[in-house]
Write a structure and sequence with these properties.
By secondary structure, this protein is α+β, with helices and mostly antiparallel strands. It is built from two helices and five strands, in the order E-E-E-H-E-E-H. Strand 3, helix 1 and strand 4 form a beta-alpha-beta unit. The chain is globular.
Length: 98
C-alpha cells in the first residue's frame, strides 16, 4: 500500500480479544480483524463479522470508550499483496460513517 495509516497493532487478549489492529479515522475509529481464507478457500463472512463486532465491543470496554469502534474484517487475497486485500463490513456500519 502506498498510503500509510496511523494504525496500532493490538496485543492478543485471550477470551477478551480486542481485534488485530486499531485505526483512528476521519469518520470514526475502526477495529480490524485480519483473516486469510482457509486452504480450501472457504471464507466465513458472517462469523468473521460477528467476531469483529465482539472484539470492537471488547476494545470499547477495555479503553472505557463511550462508543465502540466500527468493526472491519480485512481478508487477504491469495497470492496478492496487502493492497489487494478485501474489506468487509455491514452495510449499516458503512451508512453510519458516510
Amino acid at each position: 500500500m502506498e498510503q500509510g495509516l496511523n494504525a496500532q497493532r493490538l496485543p492478543r487478549a485471550g477470551r477478551n480479544d480486542v481485534g488485530d489492529v486499531y485505526v483512528p479515522g476521519v469518520n470514526g475509529a475502526y477495529v480490524v480483524e485480519a483473516k486469510a481464507p482457509r486452504r480450501d478457500g472457504r471464507i466465513d463472512l458472517s462469523g468473521w463479522i460477528r467476531e469483529a463486532e465482539i472484539e470492537a465491543e471488547n476494545y470499547r470496554v477495555a479503553k472505557r470508550l463511550a462508543v465502540a469502534p466500527t468493526p472491519l474484517v480485512i481478508i487477504k487475497a491469495s497470492n496478492k499483496g496487502v493492497g489487494e486485500a478485501y474489506v468487509v463490513q455491514k452495510l449499516s456500519d458503512v451508512l453510519a460513517n458516510l
